[in-house]
Write a structure and sequence with these properties.
alpha/beta, two-stranded parallel sheet, seven-stranded mixed sheet
Length: about 240
C-alpha cells in the first residue's frame, strides 16, 4: 500500500483534471490519487475513468450523487483513506492553484520533520499569491487575521486548503462532527487539530489563481466562514467542540 493519498474534490473540472492527475504521477515521490466527484455535469468523472485505464493501480474515483460541498467531499475522502490504511492524506485543488510539486515538501514536513499537519501556507513568509485581485488577497489575508484573533491559533493561513494530515490526526478527530462545508471547513479542521495539541507546521508555497474553469467562491461560503469561527470558539469555551 502506498503511504500517501492525494484527495482532489471536483465539480466541473474537465479542463484541469487530466493535467493535474498527470502532474501528480510525474513526481519523483509516488502518491496515489483519489478524485471525489460531485456528479459534474461536464463529465469530469468520465475523464477520470479514462485515465484509470492508464493508472489502474494509483488512481481512484468516488462518485457522489450531487454537489454537496467541499467539506463533505473531503470527509468522504478521509474516511476512504482511513479504511485503506494510508499514513499521510493530502488535500489539494484540481485547478493548479496548488503546485503539485509542493506535495513532496508537505510530505517531508510530516514524514521527516515530525509535523502532524503540514499546511501549504500563502502567508507564512509574506503574501505569496499570484493573479488574485487585491480585494481577494485582502479578504483571504484578513480572514486569517480574524481567525487568529478569535481562536488563538498561531496559523498565518487558516483558510489554506493545501494540507498533509498524518493518519493519527484524522483518526483522532471525530469526522462525523464536522459541521461546515465551505472554506469554514478548512478552519474547523485546523481548530479541532489545534485543540487536540497536534503539531501544525506551515510550509511556504506560492498560490496561483486558476486559469481554467470557474471559482466556487460565493457569498454564502464567506458568511459561513465568518460566523462559523465564532461558533467554533463558543463550542470550545463550553467544552462542546
Amino acid at each position: 500500500m502506498n503511504c500517501g493519498l492525494v484527495i482532489i474534490p471536483t465539480y466541473n473540472e474537465i479542463e484541469n483534471i487530466e493535467s493535474i492527475v498527470r502532474a501528480v504521477f510525474s513526481l519523483s515521490k509516488s502518491f496515489h490519487v483519489l478524485i471525489v466527484d460531485d456528479n459534474s455535469p461536464d463529465k469530469t468523472s468520465d475523464k477520470v475513468k479514462e485515465l484509470q485505464i492508464e493508472f489502474s493501480d494509483n488512481l481512484f474515483l468516488e462518485q457522489r450523487l450531487k454537489k454537496a460541498g467541499l467539506g463533505t467531499a473531503y470527509v468522504h475522502g478521509f474516511k476512504w483513506a482511513l479504511a485503506r490504511n494510508y499514513e499521510f492524506i493530502f488535500e489539494m485543488d484540481a485547478d493548479f492553484s496548488h503546485n503539485p510539486q509542493d506535495l513532496e515538501r508537505l510530505y517531508d514536513a510530516c514524514h521527516l520533520g515530525g509535523a502532524d499537519i503540514a499546511i501549504g501556507s500563502r502567508y507564512v513568509t509574506g503574501v505569496n499569491v499570484v493573479n488574485w485581485p487585491l480585494s481577494r488577497v485582502l479578504l483571504s489575508y484578513f480572514a486569517s487575521v480574524y481567525v487568529r484573533m478569535i481562536t488563538g491559533m498561531k496559523i498565518m493561513d487558516a483558510t489554506a486548503g493545501f494540507i498533509c494530515y498524518s493518519r493519527k490526526v484524522l483518526e483522532t478527530i471525530n469526522l462525523d462532527k464536522i459541521k461546515f462545508i465551505g472554506y469554514a471547513f478548512q478552519i474547523e479542521m485546523k481548530y479541532r487539530a489545534f485543540s487536540k495539541k497536534f503539531h501544525i507546521k506551515e510550509v511556504p508555497v506560492i498560490f496561483t489563481d486558476r486559469t481554467k474553469g470557474q471559482s466556487k467562491m460565493s457569498g454564502s461560503i464567506i458568511k459561513e466562514a465568518i460566523f462559523g469561527v465564532l461558533t467554533l470558539r463558543i463550542k470550545k469555551m463550553f467544552n462542546n467542540l
